[in-house]
Hints:
Oligomer: single chain
Strand order of the largest sheet: 1-2
Amino acid sequence: MGATTSSRMPHLKPEHVKAALNKFKTPSGRKWGFDVFDCPIDLFEYIADITVLHKLHISSQISSDEALRKAIVLGNAAWTWNGSDFLSDRRGDMIEIWRRGVLLYLVRLFQLSEETFDTSDLLDDVFRRAERLSSETNRKFSTSWPLFQAGLGLHQEDHERKQSLRKEFATHFATLGCCNPKLAIDVLEQVWQTGDTKILDSQKLLF
Length: 207
C-alpha cells in the first residue's frame, strides 16, 4: 500500500499480484479473512491495478488517452463490484468506505472531473458511514487508507470534515502507538494548506 502514497512502483507486477490473490479462491469467489487485510480482495486488486496504471502513465509508458480509458474502466468495475457477501453483516459500512476510497483515489490520480463518479456524493457517503463506525473501534481503525484518500479530496471550506479527520487520526495514534496516523494527518495538513498533493512523493506512509 505504500506505493499508493509515494512515487515508487509496487514491488510486484500486476500479474504477480493477480497470481497471489488467486490463491484465495473459494467456491463462492476470492476471499480472505479480515485478519489478513481489512479491504476485500477484489477492491485490493483494483487499488493495485490503479496504482500501476498511474505509474505507467506518469512515466510515459502509456499515452494519456489510453490511461484515461483504462482508468474509467477500472472505476466502473469498482463501482459495480458486487460486495453483497459482506453487506449483510456489520462490515457493510467499512466495505463501502473502502469502495469509495478506491474511487476517490482514482479520481485524484487521473484528475477526473468531479462529475465522473460524483466526487461530492462519494465524500458525503464516506463521512456518513465513518460516523456510524465511530463506536466500533476495531472497524474504525481499519479504514485509515480510504479516510486518508477522502481527506486528500476535501476542499478549503470543509472545516468540519477536516477536524473530524484530525480527531480520527489522533485517536488512532494514541491508541495504536504507531507513527503512521500522525504522519498521515501531518501530510493532510500540508496538502490542505498548499493544495498540492505532490508532497506525497516525498513521504513514507505505510498505507
